[in-house]
Amino acid sequence: MSEAVESLNFIEHIVEEDLKNGYSEKDLRFRFPPEPNGYLHIGHASSICLNFGLGLRYNAPVNLRFDDTNPAKEEQEYVDAIKKDVEWLGFKWDTERYASDYFQQLYDWAIELIKQGKAYVDEQSSEDMAIQKGTPTQEGTNSPFRDRSVEENLAIFQEMKDGKFAEGTHVLRAKIDMASSNMLMRDPIMYRVLHKAHHRTNTDWCIYPMYDWTHGESDYIEQVSHSFCTLEFAMHRELYDWFLDQVTDTEKLRPKQREFARRNLSHTVVSKRKLLQLVENNVVTGWDDPRMSTISGLRRRGYTPESIRNFVETIGIAKRDNLIDVSLLEFHLRDHLNKISPRVMGVLDPVKVIITNYPEGEVEWLDTENNPEDESAGTRQIPFTREIYIEKEDFKEEANRKFFRLKLGGEVRLKSGYIIKAESCTKDTDGNITEIQCTYDPKSKSGSGTEESLRKVKGTLHWVSVAHALKAEVRLYDRLFTDESPDTHKDKDFMEFINPDSLKVITGYLEPSLSEAKSGDRFQFQRLGYFCVDPDSTNEKLVFNKTVGLRDTWAKLQNK
Length: 560
Ligand code: ATP
Ligand code: MG
Hints:
single chain; alpha/beta; Rossmann fold; CATH 2.40.240.10; 3 domains; seven-stranded mixed beta sheet; 13 helices; binds adenosine-5'-triphosphate; binds magnesium ion; ATP-binding
């Protein structure tokens, strides 16, 4: 490992230090600990790549642990989605674990704490408890229930477990220090009453352990050596350690918590709670809407696992929170799609071109490369006929010399085909161009080897044969939020920044080879961008998502 030390991030340095100071590689064990209260998002990808990356680097096991202690918000659907996303990103967990697997052990330990006089049942209202807790600058005061006897605590805690009490009436608190400078140490709650069925333990329990009481002990049970979490838990570390002190057997490995910065992406939100709000308010069609920052949304949009991993690798692991521009993610996406995507032609805003000197009814199948970046991708045949579509914006009656597309009297090459010249055009009563009449140079066919075929003209246009064009629904996406950082405004809710034009649905006209395209297939529509087949697609009606354009037009617009 030492030869790569310079490129290690600070988390890897922590592990390296521990290895120098007595840990052996076989002591290393990591975990990724999502709460199944929503779908994973791009922020989670950082944590996944960090933990599973460490696993690969040190050949150490990595558990997938569901932190499922709040049945009010957690569901099996989310568990399934999380597993699918981690796998899709390309990682394998050692064992699948659930905090709920440890409910009995946690309960037994809680009883021990009560017996040692280190935990008590509090019956104050949550309001009273908040007041009694003090403020960061003012010490708290003891609860009137703090000095109950062990016997009384055991009895009431038993009643809590037996379902005798309503939610919010009783909690079990650790007896630590109401004067601690760390508010989290002022007798934190370990258990609350929740009369809710749990997706795994059903109605076995009506008291549920809190995050702090659960997380470190779960790490300990699993013998996780390093428990990496995000910075908002930095203050929790003291409590994590206090709880561990209560249960750790010196023979066993003691987990350590260390923190790294959350990753935020521009023009979106990365919080399950906020993403759930978008779903519940029908701002999007679901968790996997291609505009979402969820892994499932990115997948449906056409992202590859490689592009996400490369992005995460590039941004690295930081000690301070910051905002990453989404165009960096898109850069990695384009970079990968460019290497792997078959090239096809499709016209999204068509105008008809008639090639007047081409025989009516004739169809010529032109040989075309599938991917100039990848010879092994082979070739395919595309039909050329007298009537074709080109993009409206690729034709102007008159234009200056910098317009390298089609204009009256000018020539362009049709991609993989012939050189055509615009002779005249037809307009409707509003002045819109409805048809362009062209002639073609029969000797100019691409790849035919003739002198004319090598003739250079400035512009090359994509096109499709009208008779062969497949009609498809094409969904074009824009940023979901108009603001770079929608959830950081003090006076405005993030929902106020939703871009009303984030989805545009149009009809595209595509080359016939795409009739075979299947859900998830990715293509470059030449000159337009990268597109993929949406799961809504059927044999009767193809549906494509625009994944990303060929160039970063967004960054350019921002710099204007
Ligand atoms: P959310 O607010 O979206 O629910 P969370 O942190 O509550 O996020 P968890 O399911 O608890 O979500 O997260 C699992 C792991 O992923 C945790 O270790 C958490 O710190 C990490 N994580 C979550 N969001 C990010 C992020 N934006 N950047 C980096 N790591 C993250
Ligand atoms: Mg959470």
